[in-house]
Amino acid sequence: MAVRLCDVASLLRSGSWATEPWTGQVIAAMETQLSNGPTCNNTSNGPSTISNNCSSPVESGSMEDSKTNLIVNYLPQNMTQEELKSLFGSIGEIESCKLVRDKITGQSLGYGFVNYVDPKDAEKAINTLNGLRLQTKTIKVSYARPSSASIRDANLYVSGLPKTMTQKELEQLFSQYGRIITSRILVDQVTGVSRGVGFIRFDRRIEAEEAIKGLNGQKPPGATEPITVKFANNPSQKTSQALLSQLYQSPNRRLDNLLNMAYGVKSRFSPMAIDGVTSLAGINIPGHAGTGWCIFVYNLAPDADESILWQMFGPFGAVTNVKVIRDFNTNKCKGFGFVTMTNYDEAAMAIASLNGYRLGDRVLQVSFKTNKTHKA
DNA sequence: TCCTATT
Q1: For chain A, which domains are there?
Q2: Between the CA of residue A307 and those of A164, A166, A243, A321, what are the distances in Å?
Q3: What is the DSSP string of A255-272?
Q4: Of A194, A298, A316, A344, which residue has the fewest beta carbons closer than 10 angstroms?
Q5: Rounded to whole angstroms, how far apart are CA atoms A374 and A376?
Q6: Beta carbons of A107 and A77 less than 8 angstroms apart
Q7: Residue limits of the RRM domain (predicted)?
Q8: CB of residue A217 closer than 7 A to nucleic acid strand B?
Q9: A237 CA to B4 C1' distance (Å)
Q10: Among A99, A91, A80, A204, which residue's Cα sits nearest to residue A145?
């Protein structure tokens, strides 16, 4: 299922635009996903834990721990609740799904919850979707701990760390105070060298408090300078500057610009407004239907499923929906499916990259969906 | 001197 995508990477590498910087990111994204497969500890974009606590319930939580409720971390900023539901719904029936958003701005906080009807589907989701690359993110899928006030505000900011200290050493230093959920050392983007600052998220706030008492102002073993340990800034304390810059980077602006350049269409920044404008103007744009750009994928194998479509198209950008068309009686794929993507340029890049791609012994045909039944 | 993990 997760097979053969490395072929895409080599295909991309040999392609003419494989030298563009962000294409390289896509390749790197795919290679990470495909060589490692879904893993607990993530690669470049998110904090990770070294200890094996990625999905294990708290020991003391015992029977209370849900086996159907998952927390999904490191979601792309522009991923919506519907996309989340669509992605995880490809595994099994979902009881409920929630993307957590900032109360004031409504912006995604980059994580959410998916509660399945069947515990087996929750387990399957962890096994198949944890570590999935979506755009620049590697999502993390694990069991949600029972919600309680005691697990909130347990994130510590640590500074003054020796530049040589590894993430593992950082965890070793803090693990005496409790169960570490995530840890991270920030590094210089260019050199990759430690910036001497990092984060430790504990399971419970009291553990974090004890770690501050025990380690703030102390010198780690072998260090010459003391470290500072304090509670990390709360995301809600983000400056309005940062919020404005986030809003400014809304991906719809790019679609807006593209439409403007290609068709002279003036539109607002929401897909609804764009649909309204394009339909009013009587413009027929191939593949542009409803909430995004619909892509036709032909020559899928009979056993193809939705997850292969997510895996193929996800790395190129925001995917809102995937569908494998199946025979009603046999439930086998009829050889084709559809993928909806939000942004035109990402959809175009996915088509350019995946059209002609060999999936198993089949050569896929990938294009914008045409509307052959409604000749206007 | 701040990565975004508890609805």
Answers
A1: 38-148 (3.30.70.330), 154-233 (3.30.70.330), 250-368 (3.30.70.330)
A2: 41, 35, 33, 11
A3: HHHHHHHHH-----SSHH
A4: A298
A5: 6
A6: yes
A7: 68-146, 154-234, 293-371
A8: no
A9: 12
A10: A204
A101 touches strand B (CB under 7 A): no
Q: Provide the positions of strand B that have an atom within 7 A of a protein CB.
A: 1-7
> Which single residue is written with the structure tokens 């909806």?
A340
Residue nearest to nucleotide B5 (CA to C1'): A73
Tokens describing residue A278? 């394009």
Residue A352: helix, strand or coil by DSSP?
Answer: helix
Nearest nucleotide by C1' position to the A42 CA atom: B3
Rounded to whole angstroms, the distance from the CA of residue A218 to the C1' of nucleotide B5 is 27
Q: How is residue A367 written in tokens?
A: 């294009």
Q: Residue A347 is encoded by which pair of tokens?
A: 């959809």
A114-140 burial by CB neighbour count: b if 16+ within 10 A, else e?
bbbeeeebbbebbebbbbbbbbbbbbb
pLDDT at position A87: 94
pLDDT, tens only, A261-303: 332 232 333 332 333 333 323 334 567 666 789 999 999 999 9
Taking Cα atoms as reference points, which of A375, A17, A42 lies closest to residue A182? A42
- Contact yes or no for A51/A175 (Cβ under 8 A): yes
CB A309 within 7 Å, strand B: no
In the chain, the amino acid numbered A207 is E
Instruction: Give the CA-trace dihedral at A45, A47, A51, A52, to 10 degrees.
Output: -60
* 3-state DSSP assignment of residue A110: strand
pLDDT < 70 positions in chain A: 1-63, 235-286, 288-290, 372-376
